[in-house]
User: What shape does this take?
Amino acid sequence: MRRNKKYIIANILDVYITKKLLMTFFVAVALISMIIIVFDLSEKLDDFIANQAPIKGLIFDYYLNFIPHFLNMFGYLFFFISVVFICSQLASRSETIAILSSGVSFARYLRPFIVCAIFVGLINLWLSNVLIPAVNVPKLNFEKTYYRNPYYNQFYNIHIQTENDKQVYVQRYNNTKTTGYKFTLETIKDKKVCQKISAEEIVYDSLAKDWVMQNYQIRNIDGMKENIEIGASKHIDIGLVPNDFNLNQVKTEVLDYKQLNEVIEREKMRGSSIVTELEVEKYQRLLNPLAYIILTIIGVALSSEKKRGGMGLNLAFGITLAFSLIMFMKMTQVFATNADLPAIVAVALPLFIYGIIATILVVKAPK
Assistant: This one.
């Protein structure tokens, strides 16, 4: 009989906490999204009016597709705040004491929070790898047409490996003119350069689907023998199209998980400098949903005890801890891109450390 009573109490507790937590989370996300949209619209309104942006496109192509992106980016922070808010509310009303005193263990009390965290984390996983890349396409197209065109490239010192034995280099590439300056193409066999083609500039010929070299020089090297060809203009197929020079313009936000992996393999073959950034993006999509679970455990452990400072103290401490995790994540990303820290380590290290913190807090939580 006592066991059945505990079972009934636990089930009621599950429904009660789940409803309150999910409702608080989604309402908070909706309200903050509306505030962000208002500020964003006020900043871009002049451009939208000047470019005669259609209202239908503004609503359905731009701002409606903004919400999943916002939820994916800051979801775990708002979920953590929701957990702290609900737990602090239960503690302030002495409901937590009543629940634990009725025979429900702290682990059992924690379960509905964990289930909700897993549910929202799976939504995050689906959003980041499937939905958001799809909805970002019309969003970015709308922004490009009616706000400003971000598709402009003036990057320097671009190296691309087109094949196993071919290396392309341009000192500067202008995307608007589809022109590369100080061009070099080297063919390497047996670790020796057997051909080196250089030109002052190469211009893409959209009709011929190849490139035109200006003021070029071709050196064919065979041991001690060398043959040089010099000319003013010549067509050449370098195995690249203009978009291939946009190494730093890879829009990961429009790539689903499969496409992202394909881009990573392509950029590895080319020896691109953005491979680490792409790998960090990949592992973030896979591992960041764990942040929901870790922050939920921390939030419940911190907020289940009634404190003199009340809910405000719990929220302040909890938000500080959550932002410290975000800052730690950003720091490890910088180490990955600038200090050769492996991408998987950069993404997993903050989650691992805060997972240890969560375990310690649970052990010390009031039972």
User: Anything to note?
Assistant: Residues 2-148+282-364 form one domain. The longest strand covers residues 192-205.
